[in-house]
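In response to reviewer comment 3 from the previous cycle, which asked for concrete evidence that the modeling workflow produces usable outputs, we include below a single protein chain processed end to end. The sequence was submitted unchanged, and the resulting structure tokens are shown without manual editing.
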Amino acid sequence: MEISSFQSYLIILFVVLIIISIFVFRQFLRTRSEELNLVKFEQKGLDSLTQATELYEFGSIQIKKRLYSEATKTFLKAIENYENEPDEAKAIINNALGFSYAAQNEFKKAIKHYNSAIKSLPEYPIALNNLASAQQRLLEYDLAYETYQKVLVIDPKNKTAIKKSKELEKRNNYKPYKGIKDKGF
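The workflow returned the following structure tokens.
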């Protein structure tokens, strides 16, 4: 039995539609799960949450939903309750709080918390990249470049640090054209 070009087209179309529907369904389940967790945490209320891990999870969901001011409050409460947590958890919470502040364009506060994350976990490339990004947004290009270089010492293949370092090198090596007087219009 031979398959005509029309039949092969329909088979290919059917397979593509199945693959797309699988991805859409997985995304639907993931979003539904996040929504249910958000509702669960909101029903408990921020005041009833006392463990840093629960607060971090709640704040992370709020960040995914772009509820940055609420996430800031949640992470601040997590910091109040994380004294018994390991240094890595403290670093992750401080980095998330810094990200929340940066999303609200409060870069000085973000830098403070990125530095706290780095103090807890000195070789934390994500916090270092975030710190450099905040420094860059405050027009502190030399500091940002140095911070990206620290990331590259820790992780030489870090794509973000490589890309941003190259951008800053181009920016720092930029010299405006001085020969305007020689050219006439």
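Helices lie at 5-44, 52-64, 68-80, 87-103, 107-120, 125-137, 141-154, 159-172. We consider this sufficient to address the reviewer's concern, and the full set will be provided in the supplementary archive.
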